[in-house]
Amino acid sequence: MLDIIQQKPFLVAILAGLFAQSVKVVSFLFVEKRVNYRRFVQTDGMPNMHSTAFSALAIAVGMKAGFDSLEFAFSLCLTAIILVDTMNVKNAASRQAEAIWLLLERLRKDNPRARAENTGLSYTPLDVFSGVVVGVIFAFVLY
After folding, report:
1. What is the rounded CA–CA span in Å between residue 69 and residue 83?
2. Which of 52, 53, 101, 112 has the fewest CB atoms within 10 Å, i.e. is most exposed?
3. 8 Cβ contact partners less than 8 Å away, ≥ 6 residues apart
4. Structural domain tally of the chain?
5. What is the pTM of this model?
6. Is 58:138 a contact under the CB 8 Å cutoff?
7. Does residue 102 have a pLDDT over 80?
8. 27-42: pLDDT as tens digits
9. Can you tell me the distance from the alpha carbon of 48 to that of 52, in angstroms, rounded to the nearest whole number?
């Protein structure tokens, strides 16, 4: 187990994901003028942590094993699946959340204590693309 953790592509992916989440905390600080550590674990926002971590992993694997290797091909396919699923699954969940919010708003008219909250599920293509860019740059810088 310790051997996996010490692999450079694994470390690059983990650090890239942590960096992406840290960017969200810092950007919230600049915009809202207050610290919100919950942003570190929230899923929404730019850059997208999934696309950042997996893009960094794919590039780091390519740099270690070669861009013509089976390992790189596998990690690239996995990254493509993650990117597509990030957009599709999160957007579908966001549409479901919007339907629930509408129901809650209707209930709220009858009950003023009922409250709809935004769960922050949706990713825009820019969130995912910015994650890819950050991940690729991060991999080249760290590797």
Report:
1. 21
2. 112
3. 60, 64, 143
4. 1
5. 0.77
6. no
7. yes
8. 888 888 888 888 888 7
9. 6
